[in-house]
Amino acid sequence: MAGSALRRLMAEYKQLTLNPPEGIIAGPINEENFFEWEALITGPEGTCFEGGVFPAKLVFPSDYPLSPPKMQFTCEMFHPNIYADGRVCISILHAPGDDPMGYESSAERWSPVQSVEKILLSVVSMLAEPNDESGANVDAAKMWREDRNEFNRIAEKIVRKTLGLS
Amino acid sequence: MRAASITFISLALTSAVVGNAFYHKKQFYPSVVYITKSNPSMAVIYIQALVVVVLMGKLMQKVFFGQLRAAEFEHLADRSWYAVTETCLAFTLFRDDFAPRFVAQFILLLFLKAFHWLAEDRVDFMERSPIISWIFHLRVISLMFVLSILDLYFVNHAYESTVSGGASAQIVFGFEYMILLMIVVNIGIKYVLHTIDLNSENPWDNKAVFLLYTEVVMGLFKVVLYFTFLIIMVRIFTLPLFLFRPMYYTLRSFRKAINDVILSRRAIRNMNTLYPDATPEELSAADNVCIICREEMLTASKKLPCNHIFHTSCLRSWFQRQQTCPTCRLNILRIPGERNTAANPAAGAEAQAPHAPDVPPVPHPGLQNPFVNGVFPGMFPFWQQQFNLQPPNPLPNQPHHPPGHPPQQEPSTSSGSASGPQPGLNAMPPPFPPMPPGFGLPFFYPPFPPTPMPPPFGIPPPMPPPGLAHLNDEELQRMECAAREGIAARLQCLQNIQQLLDAAVLLMQQYSNAAATAATNLVHVPLVPQMPTASAAPTAATPTSSTSSSSSNASATIPSSQPSSSTNRNTPANVKTHSSEVPSSSRSEELKASTDVKISPRSEGTPDSTATSSSPSVATGLSREQDEIRRRRLQKFSGNPEPLD
């Protein structure tokens, strides 16, 4: 019998393949290693990221689901809650112990109830509604607050880039 | 590409140097001497040697690992960097015997270290991949074998060279290889555990625990090794700077391992004590997928106070990290405490529940009852009630006792006996906790037919607490598990009774002594005339149905308590002070009861009398008319002093 983490990841993969949520594709990069996944997220409609397809990498710890995975966009991103290197900063990806921004209540943190699907859906909603209080990318947060047009322009540029149009 | 060109250049340089030497010297030996004498040639040779070692390493890696994964490569690069820095630090320490041979040994050590790290990563990878081929096993096993042989050899080599040649840099090597050997052992244990897990049909829940303890034990070994080495190095050479980083990491991981073990143990303890197993009905009622592992729960599941159900093993690993419910984040550590304090009345009732039914320890209350009711009224509330309910109760002045009240007499009883100068009685245990009000009410017995006592202990069956509805499953289970406590309570109760009997006999003796010797002292005390005959006489003619079967047991129990009671004699003054502290009526009742105690074994022919006469003595918080009745009765008794005089 394989380890519990592996079994759970396989179950989640099966679930995601059978009932894929809209606009999200995810699965292991290589089926020999279920602890590294690749995900494709389409930008939510009606937002400045609409139409974009954003690739991201998910790395799971060996004690998943007790600890959260790490998620990192592998394309260029400009968003208040995404670090310049692509790492995603949302509360459900943080273990209850650590609080990098010092504002998250433990109720919105990681727990084994969360899943890849929920993470990706949260990321989609994060793309639609940035939380400008947690400044993973301070420039983006500032621009989102003060100069929305410029922000939209940059976002559109990124969308075009992910589609290979520019 | 770059590696290939470096290899090629170094090969070309080496051939050039060697060819040049041969071209000049024509013979083997002179050309070797020529090369070794020339620094540039030696540099080329060293570079060539390094390249050869790297190539060997690549070959070994191909053989034992195949293609390295990206994560493994990253890991390797990180660790190599640290290892190289530490090696350079170690060089500074041994700069005196800095020699090519020494450098070669360090490089070899580095290489072996790299293989150990890779082996560790590989074995960890076993948990991550669904496909583990036989070639993987073959590679890991042979690699571990080779590595352990090499480590052993080098440890041995270092040991022998140290023993023969004294302390040198060989100590460092010996120590490093010891650490590497530890790592191999650790990897081996992990590999075995993973393999067992992979080959078993069912999930192996305890694997995590085994891994945890392996971690602790190996960590301990490593810490001990590092400290020994540090001490040796400080004594022989100087402070080994290169040692501090690995030592720090080892200490840190050891501390973490211990912490994990503690947390895990606590989690297991909590799991076993605080939370009930989920019943099959609960499992089938709910959607029975464990939210942690997303698998069905068929067995071994636990239910949290918030009614969420999880696999026991899943919950245990989660509780190791966090003490909250995974689903609703209820803090499960705070809940039990809250429940204990908030539900205190209920908890108190619960705690009493196992006691109460078990308290009456003897099968024949007909005889025991008087002692109980008179001397230690709080002890057997049920009996009391049981006797009150007896229909053929002949005494006209029989007071009707509210069952919850008798404990009020306890203080006077215990203080009366404990404050006297009787060493034996000072050790009297604290009186039984009073029953919670209202607790006695629900248990009543049907009117007593001739053989009323239920076997085997003649105790009332465990009565339901006032309404089972408000108890949750856990509390009910706890009540079920109270059999052992019940037995303990019975034993305790028997001891209490014995001590009470002793006390009663003592008191009785004091009274009789006082009455016989110092009648003048006692004249003004209303209790004077209460001699055995006085109290027994009026009641002797009133047998009750319940006491007919009682005498044999009583005579077995009571005489045992008598020998110890013979020595101490309280002064009458002492008695007086006590009697003045309490309302005279209740006090006298109590004392009268103790006289009954004294009597019963002696007057074998009339055991019934004690049973019935004692019942009035329990009364305390009573209505006025009951008080009135008792007072009249007292007067009757005290007005009958003839036998005394």
Could you characterize what this model shows?
Chain A is of the alpha+beta class. Chain A has a single domain (4-163), classed as Ubiquitin Conjugating Enzyme (Roll), CATH 3.10.110.10. Helices cover 31% and strands 17% of the residues of chain A. Chain A has helices spanning 4-18, 116-128, 138-146, 148-162, and strands spanning 24-30, 33-42, 53-59, 70-73. Chain A has a four-stranded antiparallel β-sheet with strand order 1-2-3-4. In chain A, strand 1 and strand 2 form a beta hairpin. In chain A, helix 3 (138-146) crosses helix 4 (148-162). Chain A is globular. The mean pLDDT of chain A is 85. With 645 residues, chain B is mainly α. Among the domains of chain B are: 1-66, no CATH class; 68-243. Chain B has 26 helices and four strands. Chain B has helices spanning 2-25, 28-37, 39-64, 70-93, 100-125, 134-165, 170-199, 207-236, 244-274, 280-285, 312-321, 334-342, 344-358, 365-375, 381-388, 410-418, 423-426, 473-480, 483-517, 519-522, 532-539, 551-561, 572-581, 584-602, 607-614, 624-638, and strands at 289-290, 295-296, 301-303, 309-311. In chain B, the strands form two sheets. Chain B has a two-stranded antiparallel sheet. A two-stranded antiparallel ribbon of chain B has the order 3-4. In chain B, strand 3 and strand 4 form a beta hairpin. The interface between A and B is medium-sized, with 30 and 34 residues. Chain A: Keywords: ATP-binding, Nucleotide-binding, Transferase, Ubl conjugation pathway. Chain A: It catalyses: S-ubiquitinyl-[E1 ubiquitin-activating enzyme]-L-cysteine + [E2 ubiquitin-conjugating enzyme]-L-cysteine = [E1 ubiquitin-activating enzyme]-L-cysteine + S-ubiquitinyl-[E2 ubiquitin-conjugating enzyme]-L-cysteine. Chain A: Belongs to the ubiquitin-conjugating enzyme family.
